[in-house]
Write a structure and sequence with these properties.
The structure is a single chain. With 180 residues, this protein is of the alpha+beta class. Helices cover 37% and strands 22% of the residues. The chain has a five-stranded mixed beta sheet, covered by helices on one side. Helix 1 runs antiparallel to helix 4 and helix 4 runs antiparallel to helix 5. The longest helix has 27 residues. It is globular and about 40 Å long. 24% of the residues are buried.
Length: 180
């Protein structure tokens, strides 16, 4: 942030518990990737990492819950290049970026957000984007508190291996399609 002259803030709402149960490695990977993208696509302005409790109506889309504290919202907001409306779903697909010029200018494989989406799913949550081209983006991760741990660790390991295998398979398909 300092090297790029970008203001970086970390905020935590007062009603967010200091202890939250989840898969620490996957949660950290999602946050690191979202921050990396925010800094990569922001040439000036700011990046804000915020921890808050989501509004009940947001969580109700996926699961009825009595307690707002059962979920955590982690958002990364930037003042970067933004994403056109018609590309916002596409960016979560493997090997996809907004356009070829974006890939050439900023680099990357187009896997980061698809991995984030899959890790969010493995954590029982969801990831959403709000963006305005030329004005920035907000990526919001919503995950449930899991005080009793993940359902079954072995299921998570198997699912993670399937995700990795799927990315390798998709990469092979992409290469074959490119050659043809």
């Amino acid at each position: 942030a300092e090297n790029q002259g970008i203001e970086f803030k970390v905020e935590k709402d007062g009603n967010v518990s200091d202890i939250f149960y989840s898969d620490e490695q996957r949660l950290q990977q999602i946050i690191k990737n979202l921050l990396s993208n925010a800094f990569k696509f922001t040439e000036g302005g700011s990046v804000v990492l915020r921890f808050s409790q989501p509004a009940p109506e947001i969580v109700a889309q996926w699961q009825q819950t009595e307690e707002e504290s059962a979920w955590l919202e982690v958002s990364v907001t930037d003042t970067g290049i933004g994403i056109p409306d018609d590309k916002q779903d596409l960016i979560f697909e493997a090997f996809q970026q907004v356009d070829g010029a974006t890939m050439r200018k900023y680099g990357g494989t187009g896997l980061g957000l698809s991995i984030c989406k899959e890790f969010a799913r493995l954590l029982g949550g969801h990831i959403l984007v709000e963006s305005c081209e030329g004005k920035g983006s907000k990526f919001s991760l919503y995950i449930p508190n899991l005080p009793n741990g993940l359902n079954k660790q072995s299921e998570t390991i198997i699912a993670t291996e399937e995700v990795a295998a799927g990315f390798v398979f998709n990469e092979e398909q992409r290469t074959q399609e490119t050659i043809v």
